[in-house]
Design brief:
- This protein has about 200 residues and is of the alpha/beta class.
- The protein folds into two domains: about 130 residues, 3-Layer(aba) Sandwich (Rossmann fold), CATH 3.40.50; about 60 residues, Arc Repressor Mutant, subunit A (Orthogonal Bundle).
- It has ten helices and five strands; from the N terminus they run E-H-E-H-E-H-E-H-E-H-H-H-H-H-H.
- Strands 2-1-3-4-5 form a five-stranded parallel sheet, with helices on both faces.
- Strand 1, helix 1 and strand 2 form a beta-alpha-beta unit.
- Helix 7 crosses helix 10 and helix 8 packs across helix 9.
- The longest helix is centred in the last third of the chain and has 15 residues.
- The protein is elongated, with a radius of gyration of 19 Å.
- The termini are far apart.
- One of its GO terms (molecular function) is DNA binding.
Length: about 200
């Protein structure tokens, strides 16, 4: 089985590749960027049976990298590798087309089992993770943070939100940073997506 392993951390990449090579069932090709992964797939589109894609790798921009790869190579299953283990992120990745969600803390046996599961055409995510009640809630936010989030949902810039709320732009930036942390979001766009259901 040919696997394309894309991770920008050399030590992590080498450790994962070593784990997968233990039983000799896998041929591993390694790249360290999203661009490298896309170029490799473009050069040999029929070679790989699975792509292991690091969520935090340069060029990924959250799940946008996953979407790009799935769009360009829809026939190749892509599993997300991540050290940021959360049920919310797992559900978002699977919704975006990931064939699996694999924490980097997996043992060799766990990783092999997950890959074998994906090879059957199934979608894999750790059961204990998916059962966690970790859905973000807009109720965690202060009224001011909720006001700022409303502005973000309307596509307004920090400057526009500051004018609407009669606050300094730097204050809006701090509110955005805080609400992103509370919602577990990497950026303002993801914050809007994560809070969408709660705000209606």
């Amino acid at each position: 089985m040919n696997i394309l392993l894309a991770d920008d951390h050399a030590l992590v990449r080498e450790a994962l590749a070593s784990l997968l090579r233990i039983d000799g069932a896998y041929e591993i090709s390694e790249v360290e960027t999203l661009g490298g992964a896309l170029t490799t797939l473009e050069a040999e589109p029929d070679k790989f049976d699975l792509v292991l894609l690091d969520y935090d790798m340069p060029g990924m921009n959250g799940l946008e990298g996953l979407v790009r790869m799935r769009t360009a190579f829809p026939h190749v299953p892509v599993a997300m590798l991540t050290g940021s283990v959360s049920a919310t992120l797992a559900k978002q990745a699977l919704s975006a087309g990931a064939a699996g969600f694999l924490p980097k803390t997996f043992s060799a046996r766990g990783l092999a089992a997950a890959i074998a599961f994906i090879r059957t055409g199934s979608v894999f995510a750790p059961c204990d993770l998916m059962m966690e009640n970790t859905a973000p809630s807009a109720s965690k936010l202060t009224k001011r943070e909720a006001d700022v989030l409303t502005g973000l949902r309307q596509g307004k810039s920090n400057k526009e939100i500051a004018r609407d709320l009669d606050l300094q732009e730097v204050t809006i930036k701090l509110h955005v940073k805080t609400l992103c942390r509370k919602l577990g979001a990497k950026n303002r766009t993801q914050a809007v997506l994560l809070a969408g259901e709660d705000l209606g």
